[in-house]
Design a protein that fits this description.
By secondary structure, the chain is α/β, with parallel strands linked by helices. The chain has two domains: 5-293, TIM Barrel; 298-417, GI Alpha 1, domain 2-like, CATH 1.10.400. 48% of the residues lie in helices and 11% in strands. It contains 15 helices and ten strands. It has helices spanning 5-14, 29-42, 66-80, 104-121, 145-169, 202-218, 253-259, 277-285, 295-315, 324-334, 347-356, 369-383, 389-395, 397-404, 412-431, and strands at 21-25, 46-51, 87-94, 125-128, 177-180, 228-233, 238-239, 244-245, 266-269, 288-293. The strands form two sheets. An eight-stranded parallel β-barrel has the order 1-2-3-4-5-6-9-10, surrounded by nine helices. The protein has a two-stranded antiparallel ribbon with strand order 7-8. Strand 2, helix 3 and strand 3 (87-94) form a beta-alpha-beta unit. The chain is globular, with a radius of gyration of 22 Å. The protein starts with a helix and ends with a helix.
Length: 433
């Protein structure tokens, strides 16, 4: 039976190699193309994840169920010529996240169906997230680690039943690996300005591990702990609308020291977007070997698309322009549900955040028909013109340097995807890729 690529990474770390892996969490087609093209170039496994609010049995905000997302990424892999075996498909925040207002019975019933569909669809890296209170949990007391672990192990058992079903149909199906953890940053970054980030206490990490081991044993699946490769912790990194909390290895030293007593697992770090490559490398060295990144990827794409729009303004008559920034603004104003709770301030400040926020709420609108039509028109307009090197240098200096060295084609689609690659390079450096 094939060994899971993440188990291979774990073995290399136990042998002393300070390696890691970035986890790309996105459903954007252009971003995924860029991610897969890099995997093809490097010939290295690529971890691509979907969150429970993006993809679930009801469609999520992408309109895709787990099997749909799997077909989507496999079709893209074929399109770019990437070997399908390089793909590590993951499910993030799988649990009752999107049904927290419901009582435990109904929320967990939906969560069981969610994880079942993810595993049956072929996802092999499963983050079991049961850290949130549900509708009938006490509001005036913290959720105990026992309750979190009980719910997590309940979902693990459903996953393994689904895996056995899959294995009967596909004898070489990879056994899934699991991520647990109760200190999970908010998906997509903080909603409010924060004064500081509290690093997970070492004793809380140890309590999570010990409690899960106990609940696994009590449920007759003690060997299930062998399938757990990582624990999500808060190592002190986060980002919000206009701020980034950078990794401070001194602040995380006690937590990372505690990890030495648990060589069977590493840490998974969420909200690592916008960290410097040096910070990311230190995280990997300190045991935070799985680096989740999402909004920064679409932020890089949006930056590149806006730069191309500036080039379009210089080269294309006004009546023929796509004017993507204006189209995006129009769509976001018409459907404010995905940004309204996250951005605050005057009308001018809101307009600024809609375009440039680190939280990058505009990623929720990139798949809207009007927006995709504007992107297609932008690409068409600039494909029909030769972009002068002078103006490329003005608005896309990083890409200019690659173009003049013959390392990057000067067509608009390639230039846009390179905005994503610029963020990926930092993660590749950090992971030792």
């Amino acid at each position: 039976m094939r060994i899971h690529p993440l188990q291979e990474m774990m073995q290399r770390r136990r042998e002393g190699e300070k390696c890691g892996i970035p986890s790309y969490c996105t459903a954007n087609e252009l971003v995924l193309e860029a991610v897969m093209e890099r995997a093809k170039t490097l010939n290295r496994p690529v971890l691509i994840e979907a969150t429970a609010n993006q993809v679930n049995q009801f469609g999520g905000y992408t309109g895709m169920r787990p099997a749909d997302f799997m077909r989507f990424v496999l079709d893209l892999a074929d399109k770019v010529g990437m070997d399908r075996d390089l793909l590590i498909p993951g499910g993030d925040h799988l649990g009752p996240l999107t049904w927290v207002d419901e009582p435990e019975a109904s929320a967990m019933e939906k969560a069981r169906e969610l994880v079942r569909q993810f595993v049956e669809a072929g996802f092999t890296k499963i983050h079991l997230d049961t850290s949130m209170k549900l509708g009938d949990d006490a509001v005036d007391a913290p959720l105990s680690t026992e309750v979190i672990a009980r719910r997590g192990v309940e979902l693990y058992k459903v996953c393994m039943e689904a895996y056995e079903k899959r294995l009967a149909q596909e004898p070489d199906a990879l056994r899934p690996v699991f991520i647990i953890g109760s200190e999970v940053p908010i998906p997509g970054g903080a909603q409010e300005e924060e004064e500081g980030i509290s690093v997970t206490r070492p004793e809380d990490f140890a309590d999570t591990v010990q409690t899960y081991k106990k609940i696994f044993a009590e449920n007759g699946v003690a060997d299930g702990w062998k399938d757990v490769i990582a624990v999500v912790v808060q190592p002190g990194v986060e980002f919000g609308d206009s701020q980034v909390f950078f990794y401070d290895r001194g602040e995380a030293a006690s937590l990372c020291k505690k990890l030495e007593g648990y060589p069977e697992v590493v840490f998974e770090g969420h909200s690592t977007d916008y960290q410097t490559k040096e910070c990311l490398r230190e995280m990997v060295e300190d045991g935070i070997a799985i680096l989740k990144v999402g909004p920064a990827l679409t932020f890089g794409l949006r930056e590149a698309l806006f730069s191309l729009s500036m080039i379009e303004r210089e080269l294309i008559p006004q009546e023929e322009r796509a004017d993507l920034p204006a189209v995006l603004e129009k769509v976001m104003l018409a459907e404010p549900g995905n940004w309204q709770k996250h951005y605050h301030g005057t009308e001018e400040e809101l307009a600024f955040a809609r375009k440039y926020s680190f939280s990058d709420r505009c990623r929720y609108y990139m798949g809207a028909p009007e927006v995709t039509a504007a992107i297609d028109r932008l690409f068409k307009n600039l494909s029909e013109k030769e972009i002068p090197l002078t103006i490329l240098h003005q608005y896309m200096p990083l890409q200019y340097g690659q173009v003049i060295r013959g390392k990057l084609a000067a067509d608009p689609r390639t230039l846009a995807k390179d905005g994503v690659v610029q963020f990926m390079l930092d993660y590749e450096y950090a992971a030792g890729m």
